[in-house]
What we know:
mainly alpha
Amino acid sequence: MEAESEKEILARRKEIEKGLSDMLKETGSDFTLKDIKDVIYNEEGQDDLTKIIAMFDRGGDTAEIENILEVAGDAWNYFPHKIIGVISPAEAILKYRKNS
């Protein structure tokens, strides 16, 4: 997570959205991109990341699980969270760096 500007964060977010949408289709998930964003936005604890991973899990091999973990982690870091002021962790880090 090395975003240097808000523009880069927004571009990365678009890439992640595309990746998530593609994975939802590939796995035949009943969930949507909005479902994932809602879980992240309304975060209540660490179990919420597990909820996102479960949306994709179809009992695949290790490579599939690793891919799910990577994309879910990216979504978690680049999508807004209500609990931290309706910004993403990437934006929070950028804000902190600007103020330091």
